[in-house]
């Protein structure tokens, strides 16, 4: 199994959404060809590049999950961003408690995948 997640840097740097989506597509396709089940973790782009960019960035994860028929964790930083108890002193990166909170967001999706026999058996 592969938990596929981006950090926020693609959005902060303004990586074109089609390029970001193509990069993720390549990883998903290679993984699926190798029989690896993929769990895609969504990320959001701050609106510093405009709302159209932010919306397209968001939609890319929905589109990829639908295209490849893979589960999607909507936003792995839910309840972490903006919570000073879960962030390092730089207010940008999660601390150990924040990492645990991220794992807690991802776990229900991963646990559901682990219940699927097809996720645990080799794919042709």
Q: Gyration radius, to the nearest Å?
A: 15 Å
The structure class reads mainly alpha
Portion in helices: 40-55%
**Residue share in β-strands:** 5-15%
Low-confidence stretches: none
- The CATH architecture classification is 3-Layer(aba) Sandwich
Strand and helix order: EHHEHEHH
* Counted beta strands: 3
Shape: globular
CATH class: Alpha Beta
- Number of helical stretches of at least 4 residues: 5
Largest sheet: 3 strands, parallel
Give the name of the CATH superfamily: SGNH hydrolase
**CATH fold annotation:** Rossmann fold
Could you give the distance between the termini? 15 Å
**Strands of the largest sheet, in order across it?**
1-2-3
- The number of domains: 1
Helix/strand layout:
Elements: E1 2-5, H1 9-13, H2 17-33, E2 38-41, H3 51-68, E3 72-73, H4 96-114, H5 117-120
Parallel strand pairs: 1-2, 2-3
Helix pairs in contact: 2-3
């Amino acid at each position: 199994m592969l938990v596929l997640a981006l950090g926020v840097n693609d959005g902060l740097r303004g990586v074109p959404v089609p390029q970001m989506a193509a990069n993720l597509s390549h990883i998903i396709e290679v993984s699926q060809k190798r029989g690896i089940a993929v769990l895609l973790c969504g990320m959001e782009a701050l609106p510093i590049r405009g709302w159209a960019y932010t919306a397209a960035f968001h939609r890319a994860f929905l589109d990829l999950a639908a295209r490849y028929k893979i589960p999607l964790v909507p936003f792995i930083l839910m309840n972490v961003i903006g919570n000073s108890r879960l962030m390092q002193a730089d207010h940008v990166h999660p601390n150990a408690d924040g990492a645990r909170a991220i794992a807690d967001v991802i776990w229900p999706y991963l646990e559901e995948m682990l219940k699927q026999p097809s996720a645990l058996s080799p794919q042709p």
